[in-house]
Design goal:
The chain starts with a helix and ends with a helix. The protein contains 15 helices and no strands. It has one domain (47-278). It is globular. The protein has helices at 2-15, 22-37, 48-62, 64-87, 92-95, 97-106, 108-119, 126-130, 137-165, 172-179, 185-206, 209-216, 220-233, 235-253, 260-278. The relative contact order is 0.17.
Length: 282
């Protein structure tokens, strides 16, 4: 009996759980943050954006019903933009940033479908895609707030440029002739530069942020900085990618926005593949 008591006295300390001190939790959080910032991002080739589009098209063909649903949403956004042009032309180019602002969030369902097909985590479905935002809704809300601030600043800057150039707001019927008037060349240059700056900020900050938040459950700052790092590390390739997106959306808008039914979801799927190539999987 004495030997048993003696043995249990020596074994008890080994079975006691080690308490986590507050400093340990902070250290673990710091390690997780550091691991995000220390990610070795891929070096891209100029042909990669075309490969992303090819993969996006393949995903669209594999789940066309999901793609067409989101394509219809893009189609509706295009007609909403047209309505703004007809009633408040000064806001048109600023509100066109809605494609850059709302597009990545609307594409969450497309990212989910592409992830399901690529990683076999679950079966792609419309219902699953519509709930893809739930696990990271807090982080997504914070990131959306940041992009919304950029959108509001863009809108304010656009109004200032209009106000400085025109004494009165030009009517919709006379808008195009006034804009292409050689006397207003300064307005066109200034408006293009201002719009380009804000569009670039939104693109650089969000190009892979949303799929990264959905996939890795990282915080909004880490995702935004990783997106910026990717653009700074591969400026030429990301410029090609941004140019392709702009060109395809512009062409898709020409036939009364019908092209957005296909182009919108294909770009959404392609963005997932861009993220998967840029950010290493561990």
């Amino acid at each position: 009996m004495a030997e048993a008591i003696h043995a249990s006295a020596h074994e008890a300390p080994e079975s006691e759980p080690v308490a986590n001190l507050p400093g340990d939790a902070d250290e673990n959080d710091a390690r997780r943050s550091a691991s995000v910032f220390a990610l070795q991002l891929a070096h891209l080739r100029p042909s990669d954006p075309f490969q992303w589009l090819r993969l996006g098209w393949e995903d669209f063909k594999r789940c066309p019903r999901i793609g067409l649903f989101y394509g219809l949403c893009f189609f509706a956004m295009g007609h909403a933009l047209l309505a703004v042009f007809q009633n408040a032309p000064a806001y048109v180019l600023a509100l066109s940033a809605g494609f850059l602002l709302m597009g990545p969030f609307l594409c969450l369902g497309l990212y989910d479908a592409s992830k399901a097909m690529q990683t076999q985590t679950h079966r792609p479905s419309l219902s699953a895609s519509l709930q893809a935002w739930r696990p990271t809704k807090g982080t997504m809300g914070i990131f959306a707030g940041v992009l919304l601030i950029l959108e509001l600043l863009w809108g304010r800057a656009s109004l200032v440029v209009f106000a400085v150039t025109f004494n009165t707001m030009p009517s919709t019927e006379k808008l195009l002739p006034q804009l292409i008037n050689p006397e207003n060349i300064g307005f066109l240059i200034t408006y293009t530069i201002v719009g380009g700056i804000f569009a670039s900020l939104i693109f650089v900050t969000s190009v892979i942020s949303i799929p990264m938040i959905m996939d890795r459950k990282v915080d909004a700052i880490s995702a935004g900085l990783t997106s910026i790092r990717a653009c700074l590390q591969n400026p030429g390739v990301m410029l090609i990618w941004g140019g392709l997106i702009t060109l395809l959306i512009a062409l898709a808008m020409l036939p009364v926005f019908l092209g957005l039914l296909i182009v919108g979801p294909v770009i959404g799927h392609a963005t997932w593949h861009a993220y998967r190539q840029i950010v290493p999987q561990g």
